[in-house]
Amino acid sequence: MQPQRERSEARPRAGWMVMGERGRPSVLEVCRVLAVLFSLLPSVSLQCKIQKCNTEYLTSSANSGPEKDTCVALRVYYGCVARTTRSCRGDLSYHATKHGIEDLMKQNNCSRDGPTSPPRARTPQPPQLPPPPVLPDSQERSDGPEVCHYERSLPRDAAPPNYTHCGFFGDPHLRTFGDDFQTCKVEGAWPLIHNKFLSVQVTNSPVLPGSLATATSKLTIIFRSFQKCVEQKTYHAETDELPAAFADGSKNGGDPNGGNTLRVVERVPGQHVEIQARYIGTTIVVRQVGRYLTFAVRMPEEVVNSVEEDDNQDLYLCLHGCPANQRIDFRSFRTRAAGEAHGAGRRAAPHGFTYQSAKAKCKERLPVEDLYFQSCVFDLLSSGDINFTMAAYYAFEDVKMLHSNSKRYHLFEKNALSGAARRGTDLLLVFLLNLLAVLLWTEHHL
């Protein structure tokens, strides 16, 4: 990792190096890249029309030509994508496409202002894409240059990096980089992480028909190109398909100069995969527990905060948590469940567990009654799926492996008030104090 200034100067090298004749990208080449991307990324919802932009220009004339023609084509493409912003706000395909076109416009010195006459229509031709090369594993290679190793790239007098952790598991439960712990609904596709180096998107499906409880059935991770260290790589997993390689079949970052800077390591076949991104000091753990996936990451604070200047980060769950309208009141649920446990007949949940039997089962794996224990109880009561006990257990094991502060492994209900809620409480207090001041001033002058 370079100092901030040097990294910003190196930024144009990263991105989508889609070059046509004489180093100029054609719209068809842009579309081919996007077509590959869309085949790898799940769509957020039917409301998002981002793929229409891709399809539209695959059927248009896009031969490489003068710079002005290239810029016109890119502006048309960018305008089409921009019009989908409202419906595609949380779609990883939208953000990846937008950044890719912006990179191409920078490489070709294209301004966003200018003529936007669409290219001439022609009979569509299916793109002829060669199969992606299967690259050899990099485990036998060297670690690569210092710029490709995060800690070695820091200035010698720099303070040790501060590593943070985010986890996502169960029905689902989210532990943010700021150690907020939330239980969420978030059905469908949602972005967990999105910064200059990588993007992570999860797709959550209902655990039972008609239930608010969801769990992760798909996961997509995109690592962006970075200098001489790695080429752009995509990792995609879903239920019963936890591959030990990237989407192109390779197990490493693809550039021999980068050495072991990005690689997939299979810990338990079909159950536990670890992705090591040394060039950004990041480790990602993906597991399949029962029918669903869990996600955990260890990432330097500098990388966490390396967001694009014009990006709205409010939607990225690991950074800001779940939106308020997607959160489940964990403590109210626990109070209600505990009350029912003392009611007549000690009624069981519809799925077979009582509050007491769920606590006993979770206690077998999670002896400390922290929020991981409480999330296990919640999951058993809401789904009846015994596998969620192991999901909570492994989530806590990943915390112990990835979190840099051993005093923060356990989180309890008194810590569960999120940063957003704390900020809301502070704002309310300021408002009340101001209101009191106005009332006192009014009374004094009457």
From TrEMBL:
The keyword Acyltransferase does not apply. It is a lipid-anchor; GPI-anchor. It is found in: Cell membrane. One of its GO terms (biological process) is regulation of primary metabolic process. Its main location: membrane. GO terms for cellular component: plasma membrane; side of membrane. Keywords: Autocatalytic cleavage, Cell membrane, Disulfide bond, Glycoprotein, GPI-anchor, Lipoprotein, Membrane, Signal. Gene3D superfamilies: Mog1/PsbP, alpha/beta/alpha sandwich. Residues 48-112 form the Repulsive guidance molecule N-terminal domain. Residues 162-404 form the Repulsive guidance molecule C-terminal domain. Pfam families: RGM_C, RGM_N. One of its GO terms (molecular function) is coreceptor activity. Residues 105-146 are annotated as: Disordered. The keyword Disulfide bond applies. Residues 124-135 have a biased composition (Pro residues). Belongs to the repulsive guidance molecule (RGM) family. This is Repulsive guidance molecule A. It comes from Austrofundulus limnaeus (Annual killifish). The gene is rgma.
